[in-house]
Design a protein that fits this description.
The protein is mainly alpha-helical. Helices cover 68% and strands 2% of the residues. The protein contains 9 helices and 2 strands. Helix 1 packs across helix 4. The chain is elongated and about 60 Å long. It starts with a helix and ends in a 7-residue tail after the last strand.
Length: 222
Amino acid sequence: MARTRDAEQSGLARRADIVSSAISLFAAHGYRGTSLAAVARESGITKSGLLHHFPSKEVLLTAVLADLDRQTLDSVEIDRDYEGPALLRALDIVDEIVARNQQNRELTRLAHVGIFNSEDTPELAREWAQRRIEGFRANLAGLIEEGIRVGEVRADVDPAAMASVIIGAISGLEEQWLQDESFDMVGAMRTLTTVLRRDLPIEPDRPSATSPRGAVRRQALT
């Protein structure tokens, strides 16, 4: 049993090494410009050893993008406690995620490979991006709906539409920044979230008495 656990741990560590190597190479040379053989060399294993863990380049790309999400959420300490309405805390996290992405230009570019449909986009990456956006939209809308239910958010706000606006803003601002690195996407995002903090809550300066203390959990933004 101990040997089995050791093998499982070794396998997980090897997969993490491969993903880390792929992130570095994809960031430096792009997805299309990086071969599986190059990732294997960077990881210190054979190509067949790499294929044991990741049977295709598309599967490896999906793991890289998933790890990018994990790094982003870890970097903003998404599980920490917050004071006040969950929606306002979520907007803070949106700001922090955009700021984090601005520090990772090439990785942000890679994430957009799976978001925008094109002939060169692997199907697995498109499917991953679709699930990611759908989950993000559903959970943001859920936070807004909860805010309406407890009297923190205006009742005339359409939760699904507002969630789509926030996601569209993130994606669109990143696209502008990828085309022009001098573009201040962090400032632009904060302009939007400042307006939302002002206009969505019923009483933006006084949290509702029914608002619980807790944490906006990882699944709320994935």
